[in-house]
Amino acid sequence: MKLTHLHFQNHYLLKNLELNFSNIKTKKPYSIITFVGENGCGKTTILNEIFNYKISSTIIDKELTNDGFFKTLYLRQNSLYNESMNSINKLIIGNSIYDNTNFMNEVVDSTFSENSRWVNMETLLNQIYKFGDTQLITLIKSNCLNDIYCGEPVAKTINNTNHLTLIDKYSSGQQELLLKLKDIVSISHKLDIILIDEPEQSLHPRWQKEIMPLLTSLLLNNQMNPQIFLATHSEKILESLLERDDTLIIRLYKSSNEIISEDITKMNLSLPNPTMAELDYIIFHIPSFEYHNQLFDYFGSMIDKEWIIDIDSKLEECINEIDISNIIKYQKNMKHKTTTYKMLPTYIRNYYHHPYSNYPAPSYEELETSISILRKIINHIARKE
């Protein structure tokens, strides 16, 4: 069973936030729910509340599985390596973070059993071979993933035995990946929900892009189907999930001191299909030449013009319609042979395509201004059609 919704009431941060995790078309809950947004917008708080679902006093309209409440594994931010690995509390499974009375038994019984389930080796190796990480390939081929622990003191605490492989000799990124794989696949057949807070921590960008496809393929190949909730700042992870039909991406942001949630399909998008450059701009407020170029090209297609001088003229006409009082702010001449371009978006577009020209690079503020006016123009035209 999967979680279909969350409804908070009088939460100190989330107030009365409501979240729907079901696909509008199929009416079925999504398998992967990804929370994105700036710091302080409640991503980790929501994961904490899902983990404490049973005892939470601020979640209303709770759902029940056939055998009670959801069984949940929580992989916390930075919980899988360095100092935190020296503590038996590196993972918390199925019990409250507010009450650790039975924590030791929960971890020993659920996670570190001698007969923990193993994964499809071929699937795992095929994924890792692509990256040529010989250390990880050697370790996994020797079937030692279940013998990975964070160090002898903790291993002895768990079951009084020494283990074949101590993780200390691997890089922090390798540690992060190995321990995520070990702990997720070893007990995932018992779980309803997996919570992952910023899985990109310590991972090389190439692994950030592959971590979610790797985990989901491993779970699928072993007939495990827990629902995954994750919070991330990584555009690589976001990019890897963008085209998946089983994934819901939710943006969280603050407005008038309240946390607002927004399905990616309902964001204020200007392009016909979301791109990573546009999501970076909307979610993380990162303007880029790439996004500017996408907007400029899309505007050209909307007005059915290919020649840059024609697009430049239409830009001037549209800006006069929308913001004539600030027209000077959007003007920036650039001359090429006998042609003079007048508008700032055209200047930036030409610089993007010909960065070695004699003209100075546009400033950060100019890039922001130009993206903003292009979005306004595109939305203005779309409303008129």
Automatic annotation (TrEMBL):
One of its GO terms (molecular function) is ATP hydrolysis activity. Residues 29-254 form the AAA+ ATPase domain. It comes from the Bacteria. One of its GO terms (biological process) is DNA synthesis involved in DNA repair. Coiled coil: none annotated. This is Putative AbiEii toxin of type IV toxin-antitoxin system. The lineage of its organism: Bacteria, Bacillati, Mycoplasmatota, Mollicutes, Anaeroplasmatales.
